[in-house]
Amino acid sequence: MSEKKIHEDQKYIDGLLKNNSFIIQAIYDEFVPKVVNYIKQNSGSRDRAQDIVQETLVTIYNQASEKNLQLTCPFDAYFFLLCKRKWLNELKKSSNKEVTINEDVLSKGEEAQELAFETSVFGEKQALFAEMFEKLGTACKDLLKATFKIKSMEEVAASLNVTYAYARKKKSLCIGKLTTLVRESPKFNQLNN
Amino acid sequence: MKEQDYIVFESYSSNELSEDEVITFEAKLKSDPEFAEAFKTYKELSSFLEHTFENEEKSNAFKKNLENISDSHFNENKDVSEFEGKTKTYTLFKYIIAASVALLFGIFTVNQFSNPTYGDFNNYDAISLTVRGANDDLLKTAENTFNTKNFASAEEAFKQLIELDKDNSELKLYRAISNIELSNFETSDNLLEDLRNGNSAYKNKAIWYLALSKLKQDDKGACVDILKTIPEDADDYKRAQKLLNKLD
């Protein structure tokens, strides 16, 4: 991961991260039409394509922001593979009917495959984490929200009207509870293998 | 895992264990895979929560902006594709126009490239710098003056911005371009050399503009040497090869 050369297309990742409208627009103009065509040719609609693209860009944004995503391949290949993967997963999920997939002719670089795989696992984990977070009790949810928003544990304790020591302990136990929920879910084990 | 384990995870993560406790903890990570797995997930979740709640506003702003751009992109193109579907003559007509434009463009470029000058290449795309946050006014000024080719004012703005944000490669690149336009080659070339030796996403762009700067200075030898160092995966590789052919 560490010493690979960063691709010039990192500018798209940085642009997303900075919420740069000019770059986002460029992504839609240059890379999105290909994705829309692919989805339309594979049992999808324009509307579904619009959602897939949007969700994919949010995942890239999150990975860039949380994990400092560094692009080591062209954005085109990476983005297309990600959208494709996401679409195929959707099809699998909802496929009572027969699904025909036109495997695309272009072979993508290994680098792009690897990076797209990493990002899509990241995205699925995020979705799982968010789902499990919702299963926590209200007290835990409130405490965790406050902890990560306010940062200072003293202030958190004061705002929730509890002692510092209690807030500290509660924080670790709530993340602990979440850890248990996540580790027990079958989906997590699939993702980790 | 027991409650106590999670309490230790938190203390270890926030560097609150004594030296001895750290040693014990790290030994357990090595010897107990179950414990290590749980700690890994605990850390992953902490990072997830931190990111989610700390950046909530920022990422909501991003999602909103994305949605707007997405909607206008998909609505706009819908009209186009519906229109195209209606008439075949229109499509044919379109090809004829495209062919004529290509032909014209061909003639035009042949003429234009016969003796390449800096002016053949200095057509930049509009830049966009504003982000929600600090220095917004200054960024807006830089962006507007650059896009309207008022390079003297752009230089002024970029200079101030770089003082506030010394490692920003994007700003350095645009400041360098402004200085090429103003023929302040010392400033432009120093900035570009700096980017060229760095490892930012703008490295290859900087090499390309350094070559153009030399072209504007009529130093064709240096221009050729620099063009040859542009790697194949660079955006400007093709343009660089064309220019090389003309110069060699």
Automatic annotation (TrEMBL), chain A:
Superkingdom: Bacteria
Residue span, RNA polymerase sigma-70 region domain: 28-95
Protein's name according to its UniProt entry: RNA polymerase sigma-70 region 2 domain-containing protein
Species in which this protein is naturally found: Algibacter agarivorans
Automatic annotation (TrEMBL), chain B:
Top-level taxon of the source organism: Bacteria
Organism name: Algibacter agarivorans
InterPro entries per record: TPR-like_helical_dom_sf (IPR011990)
Annotated transmembrane regions: 92-110
Keyword vocabulary terms for this entry: Membrane, Transmembrane, Transmembrane helix
SUPFAM superfamilies: TPR-like
Protein's name in the database: Tetratricopeptide repeat-containing protein
